[in-house]
């Protein structure tokens, strides 16, 4: 038996229950991992609230973690007990002291990267990779708008886009977050609680608009994001922290021949080769200093409900990591 967070009904942070669970042994194609650090992501909130549907109830949330392999299922090659692995997006259930997951969804974590950093870079780093390298290929001279620029994904997105030679405009909610966004490579920071971001983007770009908007906020920013685009601009909506955007009449995109996409990491890491290529580039950028990972908040796993509440109320910035309560002692 190990400790894990379980969800028996959809709702607020209070539905996250801390209890004993039975893990068992890995089957063919699986490995068992003793978890060292867990990445907290907004997708966890979406599953908890029912925005995204789970296959069955109850469930253990969490899609990102770093851990040590403790058992290898039949037919597995390439992994052994003691290997340190990172994984994201392929198997829910990381809010636990141990987890069984598909072996082909894990990647080796370089020794130079600490578990807390690895757990906060996998999902967010892979997301940023497909956003700037595959979904819309950011190049020198591009002007990009990043909403939630001080968040876990936003922080990395601003850094990577800046390193690729783009002019980065970021939106944040507070002066404190504006300082961080500047440090993370934003050339222009808009505090959207104090000024109209559409008008400010129009001013910054001399009325030309931006080449691409990366919008993880959704309903509250969606229409304004479209208004910020130049002709043939790309609207990339990859999240909905404020709610699902209203439907878009197709002809409205024709006014500026806009592109609109709602991408998902699973479609950009569908093959083992794609996963390894993306993770390799993310880890290389961390090692070289292109990406500075901000692990600004750590919570014991048993306090996941508080972590969710703080994330939803925008009290956090950078990455949030959950640490199994048994780290430092025998689970």
TrEMBL record:
The entry's keywords: NADP, Oxidoreductase
A GO CC term assigned to this protein in UniProt: cytosol
Domain Enoyl reductase (ER): 11-322
Keyword NADP set for record: yes
Superkingdom to which the source organism belongs: Eukaryota
Record-linked PANTHER family: QUINONE OXIDOREDUCTASE PIG3-RELATED, QUINONE OXIDOREDUCTASE-RELATED
Protein name as catalogued: Probable quinone oxidoreductase
């Amino acid at each position: 038996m190990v400790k894990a967070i379980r969800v028996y009904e959809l709702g607020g942070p209070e539905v996250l229950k801390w209890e004993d669970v039975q893990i068992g042994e890995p089957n063919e194609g699986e490995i068992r991992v003793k978890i060292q650090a867990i990445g907290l992501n907004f997708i966890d909130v979406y599953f908890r609230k029912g925005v995204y549907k789970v296959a069955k109830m109850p469930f253990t949330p969490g899609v990102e973690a770093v851990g040590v392999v403790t058992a290898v299922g039949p037919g597995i090659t390439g992994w052994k007990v003691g290997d340190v692995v990172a994984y994201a997006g392929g198997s829910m259930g990381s809010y636990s002291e141990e987890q069984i997951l598909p072996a082909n969804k894990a990647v080796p974590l370089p020794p130079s990267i600490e578990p807390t950093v690895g757990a906060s870079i996998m999902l967010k780093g892979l997301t940023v990779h497909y956003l700037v390298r595959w979904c819309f290929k950011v190049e020198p001279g591009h002007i990009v708008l990043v909403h939630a620029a001080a968040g876990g994904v936003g922080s990395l997105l601003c850094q990577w886009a800046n390193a690729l030679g783009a002019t980065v405009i970021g939106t944040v909610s507070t002066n404190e977050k504006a300082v961080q966004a500047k440090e993370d490579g934003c050339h222009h920071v808009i505090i959207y609680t104090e000024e109209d971001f559409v008008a400010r983007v129009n001013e910054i770009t001399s009325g030309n608009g931006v080449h691409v908007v990366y919008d993880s906020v959704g309903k509250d920013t969606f229409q304004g994001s479209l208004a910020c685009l130049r002709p043939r601009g790309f609207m990339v909506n990859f999240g909905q922290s404020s709610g699902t955007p209203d439907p878009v009449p197709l002809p409205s995109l024709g006014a500026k021949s806009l592109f609109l996409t709602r991408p998902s990491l699973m479609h950009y890491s569908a093959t083992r080769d794609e996963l390894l290529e993306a993770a390799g580039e993310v880890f290389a950028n961390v090692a070289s200093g292109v990406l500075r990972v901000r692990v600004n908040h750590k919570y014991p796993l048993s306090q996941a409900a508080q972590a969710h509440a703080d994330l939803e109320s925008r009290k956090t910035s950078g990455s949030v990591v959950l640490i199994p309560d048994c780290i430092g002692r025998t689970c």
